[in-house]
Amino acid sequence: MFMPHYFGVKRPCLENNYYEQFNRPNVDVIDIKDNPIAEFTETGIKLENGDHYEFDVVAVATGFDITTGGMTNMGLVSIQDTTLQEEWRKAAVTYLGTTVSGYPNMFHLYGPHGPTLLSNGPSTVEVQGRWICDTIRKVTRENLKYINPTQEASREWKRRINALSDATLFPTTRSTYMGGSMPGKAFEQVNYAGGIPQYAIEVGEI
């Protein structure tokens, strides 16, 4: 089996002997992007070109809408009466990877535009959680009713996300990192690619 993409631009499977399984004589590797599944039959799977493969068991693993899906599938509605799902149809936009313009006092952790999939989860959450706690203390201390990031600040953070991503090989492949987990999803970087230490510096300056 040949690797069709640079190592790391798709989430690598680092399990022992994983790749070796594809080179076994009793294993067929089928590219269903070029030859999709036409139907399930009584004994197996039939592809669009007519090829039929028989199986005792079929494990269905269709993936899920990673990173943004956890938020867009919640039915969130903004103060402008628009849904997050519709707003993010073409591109996700956040501020610092912790807030979204139009959704006052709403914070999120380990989601879009944080280090997320490119980092150690607990370390990212620690940085984001500290920033959120500091922000809530400031809001309370100054007796503010709410905070709501501006659209311009959010667009600037989006430009920062894209600039970091464009300095890597991630944009060369439609991968999980680039919104590739769902058909029809926007091709965009949904993670902060600068690493946790730099992320902590940038959010700490706000």
From TrEMBL:
InterPro entries: FAD-binding_Monooxygenases, FAD/NAD-bd_sf
Entry annotated with the keyword Cell division: no
Keywords noted in UniProt: FAD, Flavoprotein, Monooxygenase, NADP, Oxidoreductase
SUPFAM superfamilies per the UniProt record, alphabetical: FAD/NAD(P)-binding domain
GO molecular function: monooxygenase activity
Cofactor: FAD
The UniProt record lists the keyword Ligase: no
Top-level taxonomic group: Eukaryota
PANTHER family: L-ORNITHINE N(5)-MONOOXYGENASE-RELATED
Family from the record: Belongs to the FAD-binding monooxygenase family.
Name used for this protein in its record: Cyclohexanone monooxygenase
Lineage: Eukaryota, Fungi, Dikarya, Ascomycota, Pezizomycotina
